Amino acid sequence: MAKPNIIKKAQLIEAAKQCVIENGIESLTFRSLAAKANVSQGTIYHHFQSKERLMIEIIENISEASWEELGSISDSKQFINDALSSALSRQQSNSSFHQLFLSLVVMSLHNKQMKNKISNLIKIENDNLSNILHKLDKDQWIEGISHEHLAILLNSLIDGIAIQSLTVENFPAEEIFESLYKLFSLLINIKGD
């Protein structure tokens, strides 16, 4: 029997992430989430109102946790290593982050409200990375490129790799991320000279 409405939204988000991991994004429904969390579908509707809202909240949850973890790092090389490891983990076949994110991007092409939510999420991602880059080095990493622009370029690069990783058969994600690490390490070494 379903529990009364005493479950926290964060618990539902965790249950939703498990539903996606276990059964794939296409199987995420309010019914499957209600069964997983042992609550009524009405409880799910109360917290999220729509599947799209649920998907956005899952993405926000994953993103916030990642930036919180990365924001505490004060060493540039450690940040690059941990940030790329986090990005790589989001590209694995059992990861739902980019599948959800890209599904929402496609939805936003025809839905102004969704477009505004995705735009805000991307802005937060770029601002978080820009702030970390600035914290690690107050000067520009590359002469003539601001922290803000570098953050946009790096996030776009990671999202572009995600598209390839999700669509290209046998995409060498680990090798690509090793190459990115070398590229970013070179950037730090050049900056240090």
TrEMBL record:
SUPFAM superfamilies named in the record: Homeodomain-like, Tetracyclin repressor-like, C-terminal domain
Protein name: TetR/AcrR family transcriptional regulator
Residue span(s) of domain HTH tetR-type: 6-66
Alphabetical list of PROSITE patterns matching this protein: HTH_TETR_2
Pfam families assigned: TetR_N
Start-end of DNA-binding region: 29-48
Annotated keywords: DNA-binding, Repressor
Phylogenetic lineage: Bacteria, Bacillati, Bacillota, Bacilli, Bacillales
